[in-house]
Design goal:
Blueprint lengths: L2 H51 L9 H25 L2 H8 L2 H13 L5 H17 L10 H27 L5 H23 L7 H29 L1 H5 L5 H13 L5 H25 L2
């Protein structure tokens, strides 16, 4: 990995780690659904401009797959992380987000017949232990049912991410990644719109929350996806996907710097265990992909 690729790799982890900071600022004011709605709408519009300028075909006959991806990879998880953003410090959500590879392994075994090797079983156990450690309140969070609702919302979000990965592997092939990123966000926004309208459109929003919403859409859901697909072309799927390991580190960093969050030892232990499990899965997939 040359310096320019390393810079883009680190920048992507920093941007996606910052998404938890932005959600923590925006969600308490507009709610989980409108946090997701604004992010998806702005992100989809930014990507639509990109694909139009580049004349990238969208293959609308694949709309059913775009819709499923929009629900599993955008609407539900973004709304759930929005709900968590009202409850949990940004660092908590960022750490729990790294459990996605564990869910993908479970769904892969159930839907694709992937073998659960001893290495993968160890990875799953580490991940479960990590979640248990994280699912304990710190000094800034009280141990109430609301806290566990926030943790549960994060786990629902990551389960949807893992299920989406498995669905795309099983039922789709050859989809243009830029078209998939663009239309999945557009369909996700359309799915959430009726729910948001029923809840009511937010009428008062502070300047920090407004900027956070714009950053979520333009940076975290627009430009970051383009940056990720550039890294896919440059580094390959396995190496590019390892950016997941660094997102919680930036999520914790931004929460501490800008929101003065205090995370206790159990969160860092959980972070090490979850990322350790994800790294083992990464190594397992790397061996599988190596001829």
């Amino acid at each position: 990995m040359n310096f320019s690729a390393l810079f883009r790799f680190t920048l992507l982890a920093a941007i996606w780690g910052a998404s938890f900071l932005f959600m923590r600022i925006l969600a308490p004011e507009v709610g989980g659904v409108w946090t997701a709605q604004s992010r998806l709408t702005i992100g989809a519009l930014a990507l639509l401009v990109f694909v139009w300028l580049r004349k990238i075909p969208l293959h609308m006959h694949q709309w059913r797959h775009y819709l499923v991806a929009g629900i599993l990879n955008c609407a539900i998880p973004f709304a759930m992380f929005g709900v968590a953003g009202k409850i949990l410090p940004a660092g908590y959500s960022a750490v729990l987000n790294s459990s996605v590879p564990l869910w993908a392994t479970l769904f892969g075994a159930m839907m694709l017949g992937d073998k659960i090797t001893p290495l993968r079983m160890l990875a799953l156990l580490l991940g479960v232990m990590g979640v248990i450690f994280v699912a304990r309140p710190s000094a800034d969070v009280s141990m109430t049912h609301v806290f566990f609702m926030g943790v549960g919302a994060c786990l629902v979000a990551t389960a949807c991410y893992g299920l989406n990965v498995t669905y795309l592997k099983k039922y789709t092939s050859g989809l243009n990644p830029q078209a998939l990123a663009t239309l999945s966000q557009a369909f996700g926004a359309l799915v959430l719109l009726p729910i948001g309208l029923v809840q009511g459109i937010p009428t008062h929003i502070s300047t920090p929350a407004l900027w956070s919403g714009l950053a979520l859409g333009v940076l975290c859901s627009g430009w970051a996806f383009l940056l990720f697909y550039h890294l896919l072309d440059e580094l390959g799927a396995i190496m590019a996907s390892s950016v997941t390991f660094f997102i919680p580190l930036f999520g914790i960093l931004w929460g501490a710097v800008f929101l003065h969050e205090r995370l206790e030892w159990n969160v860092f232990v959980g972070c090490v265990l979850i990322i350790g499990g994800a790294v083992l899965l990464y190594r397992s997939n790397l061996k599988k992909a190596t001829p």
